[in-house]
Amino acid sequence: MQKLLPIATLLALAAFALSGSDYYTGLAIKVMIYAIFALSLQLLVGGAGLVSLGHAAFFGIGAYVAALLSPESEAANLWWLLPAALLAAALYAVVTGALALRTRGVYFIMVTLAFSQMAYYVFHDTKVGGGSDGIYLYFRPELALGGWVPFDLGNATTFYFFVLACLALTWGFLALLRRSPFGAALAGIRINEQRMRAAGYSTYPYKLTAYVVGATLAGLAGFLFALKDGFVTPELLAWEQSGLVLLMVILGGMASLGGAVIGTVALVLMQELFQSQALFGEYARHWHLPLGIAIIALVALLPNGIAGLPAQWRQRRDARAAAAHAAGAPAAGTPAAGTPAAGTPAAGTPSAGAPPASTVRLPIQGEPHV
After folding, report:
1. Phi, psi of 340, rounded to the nearest 5 degrees
2. Where would you tag: which of 202, 251, 272, 368 has the fewest CB atoms within 10 A of its CB?
3. What is the torsion angle, in degrees rounded to the nearest 10, for the CA atoms of residue 191, residue 196, residue 202 and residue 208?
4. Residues whose CB falls within 8 Å of the CB of residue 152, separated by 6 or more in sequence, listed in order
């Protein structure tokens, strides 16, 4: 079932493109892009145990490179625009990760947050990328091969399947990475980094590689987001965006790739639900309140995330079965209730040489133990 679930999900998403509704198709594209973003962070949080609050920097850099390098009068070539966006995100990750990974725990969280805010203010307070007003992307890039264009990303259906293919490739790449020796080393670092060092592993290159790979995938998500909306603002690099994607990973479950995708779907759909004026009327303006309450309830009731719900049910079922078995069946060698064991006097009959029950007491200090 675990192997068939990703395939079934991809087939369902592919069939969803035939719904004919622009709103639901756009919502599905948003979910898939954020799923790539969440998967990129899951590699750090669930794979290496690195909790980052600056992951939005790479998301925003990928989006800004797509917009800044695209000409206003014609479509750019996807063959060089996409690698440029991924390379920019990776280079920023190499520089910042080399410094941030010198720290641990809450200090790592704060350093990544600081680097993300630095990138945010570069785009927000300068003329790079239009400042706080953002920048437009007028044409989606085209995949041109010597004048031949195999598919047009300007077409909504084509772009939908392009995003779906990126999600499938991201999932497949990370699944292979988790099963590789590199993924096993990351798991060991997450569980006990000191023991990995004692075993002869240099953990720093592993963590830096994971950090750069996660940043590159986040740049891919930002690139797709810029192509989807055709508009990029500095808010894509804000710490709220980092907190949002971290919440997706936690909500779905940090232990699996499926948890990141499930958490993305749940959070995006809850946002859409609580913002619906058709359901909540004027109260939809205060959608943050019910969303926060729902998130608190889910985190409290599902400590392992939504993806861990089946395992949580099985644990409770096994615990109830064990408790019922212990209550109904006596342990081996234990006489049944009401039946005295062999050689044991019946209730109320004192054994030979034993004092009456009324005189039995525990020895006090200074008295020998019998």
Report:
1. -70, 145
2. 368
3. -10
4. 142, 158
Give the start-end residues of each E strand in 47-158: 135-136
Q: Is 13:28 a contact under the CB 8 Å cutoff?
A: yes
- CA dihedral defined by 282, 288, 293, 294, rounded to 10 degrees? 90
State residue 335's pLDDT score: 54
SS3 readout for the chain: CCCHHHHHHHHHHHHHHHHCCHHHHHHHHHHHHHHHHHHHHHHHHHHHCCCCCCCHHHHHHHHHHHHHCCCCCCCCEHHHHHHHHHHHHHHHHHHHHHHHCCCCHHHHHHHHHHHHHHHHHHHHCCCHHHHHHCEECCCCCECCECCECCCCCCCHHHHHHHHHHHHHHHHHHHHHHHHCHHHHHHHHHHHHHHHHHHCCCCHHHHHHHHHHHHHHHHHHHHHHHHHHHCEECHHHHCHHHHHHHHHHHHHHCCCCHHHHHHHHHHHHHHHHHHCCHHHHHHHHHHCHHHHHHHHHHHHHHCCCCHHHHHHHHHHHHHHHHHHHHHHHCCCCCCCCCCCCCCCCCCCCCCCCCCCCHHHCCCCCCCCCCC
Percentage, residues of the chain above pLDDT 70? 87
Q: What is the pLDDT of residues 202-225, one digit of tens each?
A: 899 999 999 999 999 999 999 999
- Torsion of the alpha carbons at 207, 212, 218 and 219, rounded to the nearest 10: 170
Res 43 pLDDT > 80: yes
How confident is the model over 144-167, as pLDDT tens digits? 777 777 778 888 889 999 999 999
Q: Following DSSP, what letter does each residue of 205-258 receive, concatenated?
A: HHHHHHHHHHHHHHHHHHHHHHHHHSEE-GGGGSHHHHHHHHHHHHHH-TT-HH
Q: Give SS3 for 53.
A: coil
Does residue 332 have a pLDDT over 90?
no
Instruction: Answer for the pair 225, 142: CB distance below 8 angstroms, yes or no.
Output: no
